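Subgroup meeting minutes
Present: P.N., E.W., G.H.
Scribe: E.W.

1. P.N. recapped why we're keeping a running log of single-chain structure predictions: easier to compare across weeks, and new members can see raw inputs and outputs side by side.
2. G.H. added today's entry (209 aa).
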Amino acid sequence: MLRCLLAFLGIFLPCCASAQQDTLILFLDSPTSQPANVLSRMKEETSALLRTAGHVIEFRDLKSRKSGESFDQVVVVRWNGACDAGQTPGTIRNKEKLAFAHVSDGRVLPFVEVECRAVTALLADLARLENVWQRNQLMGRAVGRLVAHEVFHVLTQRTTHDHTGVGKPHFQKRDLIAESFTFEEQTRAQMQKPAPASSEESSEEGTGR
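Output recorded in log:
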């Protein structure tokens, strides 16, 4: 099912994955209303966090993909709505997910979704900042950490979480915008290992934070 879903998008994985999997392609499916500096800051934060696990990240626009392209490692990241710190924030709901990776029969699929309404609600205080550049930088940092968290699930094929750091199950506002936030050392080592070979899946769940 995994290969069928990727093939539907015109993205192909090789039959045999290399043991050396350092470059990770992240296809971004974000709305045109998404502020450009939030997007660029998200890329910086995601890249920095995953670089500590030995991965070089290459970002591509899903809408600009070429049919038949082949990659060793690929994750599709969809933004549901625009993560815009200047929007009028709503209210965060109980147990509402900020982001999640799709899971089917225990296998974490390379499809991540960011729930921008929930992220904007959690970071409601950012809307009060008069400095637009500053609030967009903090929003981008927050989304970058959420994306890195979900990619951690994809790379390790774990649906469990760490006790601390980017791999923990629940994030507070301070976790998303603090100056420093990283993965546990053991988790960084796990992310350097190739994920198990894919198998057929039927039922679908999600990781969710």
